[in-house]
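Exercise: predict the structure of this protein bound to IPE.
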Amino acid sequence: MDGNGRWAKRRGLPRTAGHTAGEETLATVVREAARRNVGWLTVFGFSTENWVRPPSEVRHILGLHRKLFGRIDELNANNVRVRWIGRPFDEPGSRTPAPIQKAIRDAIRDTSHNTGMVLTVAFDYGSRAEIARAARLAAVDAASSGGTISPTAIARHLYDPELPPVDVLVRTSGETRISNFLLWQARQARVFFTDAAWPDFGADELDAALALVS
Ligand code: IPE
Ligand code: MG
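Solution:
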């Protein structure tokens, strides 16, 4: 979900206003994607690299994640189940603050009965760290069972092994890079690039992205 800062700058607004608008866009996209029977929607909310941003901006983005994970009534109304991927809270290196951990846990619990789209939020997420950790765990398995470190063995240890292969990967705001998102899972993905900044991403862009896989 890239381009919040540039979107704000173009309007003479602080970057934080762009993030606020972006969170609203996400709420809309979740609703629209669920309505289109998308099975799994995974969004990059905050990366392991994003912690170096100015503290006030990080604080603002953290607040928006609490807001997003707090949209329980809306998520339930849209039959959406929440999941999360990122550095596990109890492992070294994890940086997710306790209040966000709680918001994530609560959202997962309070939407677990839903049967529609799965919304996975990547927070404190980086794909290479995910793959390296999975490979480490696969190596431990291999050492104890005499097996090999196969792709299947690695896939079993990704943050969410149930996350299906990515069909279409969307990058907004004119960037044509993947930037450490779901590198393993997106092996066969179609890629949709749009000049629209994330706060401007709407139903038309969603339809264009989905047309790549329909
Ligand atoms: C995306 O918008 C939000 C996050 C990465 C948290 P940016 O903040 O990257 O916006 P630009 O790229 O500066 O426009
Ligand atoms: Mg950016």
